[in-house]
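Technical note accompanying the year-one report. For the benefit of new consortium partners, we illustrate the data format agreed upon in the data management plan: each record pairs a sequence with a structure-token string. No post-processing was applied to the example shown here.
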Amino acid sequence: MKMSVMTVMAPDYRLEELVPLMEKIGYDCIEPAIGYKKALWDQNKTWHISDENLKEELKSLNKLCAAHGIKICSLASGIPSSDPAKIERYFDAIAEVGCPMARVGALNYDGKTRYKDLLEKALKEIETVEKLAKKYKVKAVFETHMKNIIPSASAAYRMVSRFDPENIGVVFDPANGIVEGWEAFGVDLLDKYVAHVHVKNLRWDINKSGEASYFTQGKWIWTFCGIPDGIADWPAVFKALKAIDYKGAVSFEDFEGGYVQKPVGITTEQKLRRDFNDVQSILKGL
């Protein structure tokens, strides 16, 4: 398995600072974030890659990565499956730099539209997405994520299983499943559709403020923490990944200390080093 960084976890680093640090720690790959506004170093800039200058900035990143032995393993985009023109632009851009996949956004579920109707809509849109993936010889990946129509491996499998895993895959995120959708058999079920893995952990705490937010459910709030300290059972996940002979990237998106902000109580570098060592320790123990 290849060690990667999903750059949303490093909002206080420019790419030219992050990539050399990744090389020093021992990372293999990078998964750049797309289109986040108000960079911490310049409120007028988009980080880490802008949608407007996607192709040029990916080329610059690829050149930077090549100088440090790092590869771009995936694009942390959220392109709507209903926008084939934008998907084609993104696929063209990643194909040019040898990036094998880009994330396409799965439809959200808010209870206003029936799930079966959303699934039918998604399946029709993915038919077009798959044709574009074949054209550019890349893969479209959909993330298991709370509050969308594929929070679980079963739901993801229901959506992707009619398509070729060479063209359509899943970003498997066990920690998201702690909020909604965890299944112990998830990796086993998805098998060849597991194209990419996000690594983080979280736990449920009492919401002492009582204020509702994206991160709350009733009187509970989920908080991000170190890989060994949360509810997701990462040794079991890595054992399952090994069982299906997964050789792709495991991409860290550790949001402990705050989401899309300079972390509080821990530095980004400390998280990058700690998480790398924690996963290496797990892998050695398998």
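Partners are asked to follow this layout when depositing records. The CA atoms of residues 107 and 118 lie 7 Å apart.
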